[in-house]
Amino acid sequence: MARIVLFLSMFFGLLGSAAAADAKTIMVFGDSLSAGYGLRMEQAWPSLLQQKLGAGWRVINASQSGETTAGGLTRLPAALQRHKPAVVLVELGANDGLRGLPVETARQNLAAIIEQSRRAGAKVALIAIRLPPNFGGPYTAKFDAMYGELAKQYKLAEPPFLFDGIADQPNMFQSDQLHPIAAAQPRLLANVWPVVAPLVK
Fold first, then answer.
1. End-to-end Cα separation, the chain, in angstroms
2. Options 65, 144, 164, 179, the catalytic residue
3. Runs of H (alpha helix) within the chain
4. Of 196, 163, 198, which Cα lies nearest the Cα of 181?
5. Tens of pLDDT, residues 76-103
6. 61 - beta bridge partners?
7. For the residues 45-50, what does the mean pLDDT come to?
8. How high is the pLDDT of residue 135?
9. What average pLDDT does the chain have?
10. Predicted local confidence at residue 22, as pLDDT
């Protein structure tokens, strides 16, 4: 009897390993807004995405707090090599904007991230960030337009605004008024889902 139990446990363990190996990978490649800053990892929207997708997909959260588009571009080759994603969700640019870095530089970095991800065989979606109006009209307008212009250039889905529906609700953010609280994470996932769904069919 013990041998039968041992055999069954090994058999189902192998099945589980095979299923994990067969799962395709989505890599979330962002900054603190996706890394779950101030939250438990399981509360962040990429973890909620894993729950929504189930066992057929494996969500890797390769986001890093404080990341700029330049930092992301530097990290990307190793991340692509390590995780071999079928889909890359790019959520970067917020730190470039907050630091007032040149929009054209951020655009070039994001373009390179898209191109490298595609060359690695991944489908790509952009997730947009918008700056508060106090950053100045011309800079803010150029920054906000960047995502849509890149999507048009590379024939990507229209990038969703990550904070759509919560941007004007201070109670949805932590005390720094920059990072959403746990209760806001399902809304972030809902905002992102329309560009994810076509890529995981």
1. 43
2. 179
3. 2-22, 32-35, 45-53, 69-83, 94-98, 103-119, 137-154, 185-196
4. 163
5. 999 999 999 999 999 999 999 999 999 9
6. 28
7. 98
8. 76
9. 90
10. 64
Q: What strand order describes the sheet that includes 57-61?
A: 57-61, 24-30, 87-91, 123-126
Which DSSP state fits 159? P
User: Can you tell me the distance from the alpha carbon of 76 to that of 111, in angstroms, rounded to the nearest whole number?
Assistant: 12
| Contact criterion met (CB below 8 Å) for 110 and 92 | yes
pLDDT of residue 120 exceeding 50: yes
Q: State the Cα–Cα distance between residues 106 and 190, nearest whole angstrom.
A: 26
Is 22 a known active-site residue?
no
Q: How far apart are CA 184 and CA 193, in angstroms?
A: 15
Q: State pLDDT tens for residues 156-175.
A: 999 999 999 999 999 999 99
123-126 and 57-61 strand pairing: unpaired
- Tokens found for residue 120: 């690695």
Single out the catalytic residue among 9, 22, 32, 175.
Answer: 32
Question: Is 176 annotated in the active site?
Answer: yes
